[in-house]
Amino acid sequence: MKRMRLISPLLPALFGCISVVFGAGPLGPPTASLKQGQFGIAVEYARSGSDWEVTGRTIEGTMSSVRSNMFIAQPAYGLTDDWEIYALLGISNTEWKDFDGGYEFAYGFGTKVTFEKTENTAWGLLFELQWNKSNDSGTMDLADVNAASADYSVDVSYYDITIALGPTWKVTEDLRLYGGPFFYVLEGDLDVKGGGIDASSNLSEKTLFGGYVGAEFDICPSSSWYGEFRFTGDTWTFGTGVGWKF
Question: Domains in the chain, ordered, with CATH?
Fold first, then answer.
């Protein structure tokens, strides 16, 4: 059994980032897969659904069944055999009732640490932080957030943070299963102008914990496909991606 002592000093740094805008892409395995000095890149797609709480003096209520699509490129680098870092670069949108926000630039970063290994199972910790935004204008029914139907300009910006802990289990030489619990935070802003309103409110989610499960299959020695489903009490995400190692 191999244990990695790097995780102890790393934990304060990860949780410290929380004090630092809903589109959630696939997390992939919670364990590092790159060797030291190795590069990798993945191309991912995710479809998400969520309920957002809106709090403010003028605009408040619940935005139910918010949807998001995300297309992301994820370049990665292995700092050690058990620790990798990666960036998130792509586009995402937000859809809710009459609000059909166009695709905007989405970005973020993350890291994975493997801290324990056995013959067929590895345990790891994942941290990811991502920003997204979307906007739309036109006639919208915003009754759910205490605003009558009118011509509005609406801007949505938010960030989400995920910290996941779990195993990656080697089923065969080419197939691995992974998943586990995660801590999740979503915070952001909803800006509405029009219909006699010029207000900004906070966006958030009540549920802080969830779980996810996925599978990764080797297409060839240097590339793999993975797909997963993740959920909290207010959020679900289906994600898939293809990754390459160099």
Answer: 2-245 (2.40.160.20)
